[in-house]
Amino acid sequence: MDWRKLVDSTEEGIFYVENFVIKYANTASEKITGFDAGEVKGRRCFEVLRTDLCQNACPMRIGVGLPWKEKGIFSLDRFNEEKFLDIKIEKIDKGWAIIFQDKTREVRLAKEVRGKFQFRDIITASPKMLEILRLIPRVAVSDSPVLIEGESGTGKELVASAIHQMSHRSKGPYVKINCASIPESLMESELFGYKKGAFTDARTDKKGVFAMAHGGTLLLDEIAELPLVLQAKLLRVLQEGEFMPLGATSPVKVDVRIIAATNKNLLTMIQDGKFREDLFFRMNVIYLKIPPLRERKEDIPLLVEHFVDLFNSIYGKQVEGVSDDVMNLLMEYDYPGNVRELRNIIESAFVLSAGKLITVEDLPSYLRGQEMERRKIEEALRKAKWKREQAAKLLGISRTTLWRKMRKYGIKV
Ligand SMILES: Nc1ncnc2c1ncn2[C@@H]1O[C@H](COP(=O)(O)OP(=O)(O)OP(=O)(O)O)[C@@H](O)[C@H]1O
Ligand SMILES: [Mg+2]
Questions:
Q1: Which of 6, 130, 165, 291 is the most exposed place for a label (fewest CB within 10 A)?
Q2: What is the pLDDT of residue 120?
Q3: Is residue 230 part of a domain?
Q4: The pTM of the whole model exceeds 0.85
Q5: Which of 168, 240, 242, 180 is nearest to 208 (CA)?
Q6: Terminal CA-to-CA distance of the chain, rounded, Å?
Q7: Would 108 be classed as within a structural domain?
Q8: For a pocket test of ligand 1, which of 120, 130, 340, 346 has the largest count of ligand atoms closer than 8 A to its C-beta?
Q9: In this model, does residue 64 exceed pLDDT 90?
């Protein structure tokens, strides 16, 4: 029997290495890494697999119990695309067998579901965002409260999750509560829990989110919606590190890192008497402001590419990207719903598109309407030989409206 045929018949990638040099690579490894089996022979495994572990925690270097196994390890393939691999390492003869499976799709899906995002999941080229990313590792090492402000869909949860993942609390719980989605009457017990018998329906003890997040991080989303009474109680937790469950006779100590997020301007709310100033100053130790997408349009092409990749792996499609017309449209649009809206636009186009490229026809009608309007304006301007007054007349709109729309669509004369 030819053992090569046997190892080529499996879906798992296999390298046989001696002293970190690849001596043999099977067929499945080509598909996962993007490198031909022939060309990797003689190269070093860490140049080919480029995983998170290669530089410091390589099991072949540090000597661990065998077989060694780990799930969802980050690696880069030949095209510098991120891949997540389940890897197993075994000692064979004078060398090692590295056996790996491509779990990129599963890991991406699971991240989506659990909201477990890391630093490198935040896609951006904007200087302001890059500044925030530079701060995250430093923010993560401290235990100070963090306040994240930004419009809806700008990525506040993504940043909060990255802070938790990078911190020493990453092995502890990461608990989220949305202060806007819980009725005021239930809010206190959701936050602090209650003791059995605290009220008629309290048949057993109930843990609140503070207790659940013990040893980890608590994200208080939409903190602006927290009623004033509870703001006072939250302040106490921040100051004393303890809280009172409903019906309890003594306070409970907790070790929780608090991250608060808001899409409202808290300073305005303080002026209106809706947010406690003392809580604001206690929360505002580290303040991160995430700019809206319309102020960082350079991120749009990167995000489009990122979401196309993401939905390719989720839907098992091979869409290559968007047409130039679509990209122009996406660059012009204002995104009241920010990155979440862009993501939804790409996802709905994905479901509709039949070809390799997403075209204007695949876009939601409100964006297509915009494209029609732009084309009409350009046509009128051309007919009027770029005289704005005349073009406005042709379109039946005022000169100032025309001027405003030209600015919106980036049409220059
Ligand atoms: N820079 C980014 N790179 C990749 N994905 C992003 C980025 N920013 C946001 N997203 C995605 O956009 C969506 C919205 O992000 P997120 O939930 O973090 O926003 P949010 O600010 O918490 O919104 P809301 O105020 O509505 O709760 C998520 O699917 C997130 O993964
Ligand atoms: Mg959110």
A1: 6
A2: 73
A3: yes
A4: no
A5: 242
A6: 75
A7: no
A8: 340
A9: no
pLDDT one-digit tens code per residue, 207-217: 999 999 999 99
CATH number at residue 334: 1.10.8.60
Alpha-carbon distances, residue 24 vs 42, 51, 132 (angstroms) = 9, 19, 44
Q: Are 236 and 274 in contact (CB under 8 A)?
A: no
Residues 340 and 363 in one domain: yes
Of 69, 102, 135, which residue constitutes the final position of a domain? 102
Domain count, the chain: 3
Burial of 191 (0-12, 13-18, 19+ CB in 10 A): buried
Structure tokens at 293: 């997408």
For residue 115, give the ligand nearest its CA.
1
Residue 343 Cα: closest atom of ligand 1? 12
pLDDT digits 0-9 by tens, 107-146: 887 777 666 666 678 999 999 999 999 899 889 989 999 9
Measured from the alpha carbon of residue 152, the closest ligand is 1
Tokens of 337: 């719903």
Q: Is 123 in the pocket of ligand 1 (CB under 6 A)?
A: yes
Verify whether ligand 1 is closer than 6 Å to residue 319 (CB atom): no
Q: Residue 161: CB within 6 Å of ligand 1?
A: no
pLDDT at 100 over 90: yes
Q: Ligand 1 pocket test: pick from 158, 259, 299 the residue with the most ligand atoms within 8 Å of its Cβ.
A: 158
What residue numbers bound the domain in which 82 lies? 3-102
Residue 200: count of CB within 10 angstroms of its CB: 6
Per-residue pLDDT of 222-273, as tens digits, reads 999 999 999 999 999 999 999 999 998 999 999 999 999 999 999 999 999 9
Is the pLDDT assigned to residue 185 strictly greater than 90? no
249 and 167 in one domain? yes
The answer on 208 and 129 residing in a single domain is yes
350 with 245, same domain: the answer is: no
With a 6 Å cutoff on the Cβ, whether 157 touches ligand 1 is: yes
Query: Ranked by mean pLDDT, which of 211-225, 236-250, 341-355, 363-377 comes out on top?
Result: 211-225
Residue pointed to by tokens 């809580």: 279
With pLDDT > 70 as the criterion, what percentage of the chain qualifies? 98
Of 68, 73, 81, 4, the residue nearest 35 (C-alpha)? 81
Q: Given the CA of residue 129, which atom of ligand 1 is nearest to it?
A: 1
- The 3-state DSSP class for residue 362 equals helix
Lowest mean pLDDT among 1-10, 116-125, 142-151, 367-376: 116-125
Whether 122 and 222 map to the same domain: the answer is yes
